[in-house]
Design brief:
132 residues, alpha+beta, 4-stranded antiparallel β-sheet, two-stranded antiparallel ribbon, globular
């Protein structure tokens, strides 16, 4: 999620309340809505986890990684999208995130915790630089 204010470009990042890593919002397709599309899931998860509503601008290359949940090693593919900010309040985020922040575009890489988010950020920042 990005927004432009004057000459500044801001990117939305969040800190997960369980592992405390700084990440981009993400979730499970169809975990609450049967038949939910990847795009609808992305929009819903961003709103739930950050309090912000966006509009999808472009898809990014999916990222696959392994993680452990409830003692079980799981493989997850995340479908990321560049989104443009429409409205919302980052103080209205849900319990999954302990912090949600808008960072200047040049601060994002240093804040992200995991390689998977850094990988997708490399692609996203090039596209964002072309569209704003």
């Amino acid at each position: 999620m990005y927004k432009k204010e004057g000459n500044n470009i801001y990117i939305l990042v969040c800190q997960h309340s369980q592992h405390h890593g700084w990440v981009f919002p993400k979730g499970f397709i169809g975990d609450t809505i049967a038949g939910e599309s990847k795009e609808d899931t992305a929009l819903r998860e961003v709103e739930e986890e950050t309090g912000v509503i966006g509009k999808i601008f472009a898809p990014l290359t999916p990222v696959t990684y392994w993680y452990v949940m409830e003692g079980i090693k799981r493989r997850k593919t995340v479908y990321y999208y560049i989104m443009h900010y429409l409205k919302g309040d980052i103080t209205k985020h849900d319990w999954e995130m302990e912090n949600v922040e808008w960072l200047l575009i040049n601060q994002v890489e240093d804040r992200l915790t995991y390689d998977s988010d850094k990988q997708v950020w490399e692609e996203a920042k090039k596209i964002i630089a072309q569209i704003v």
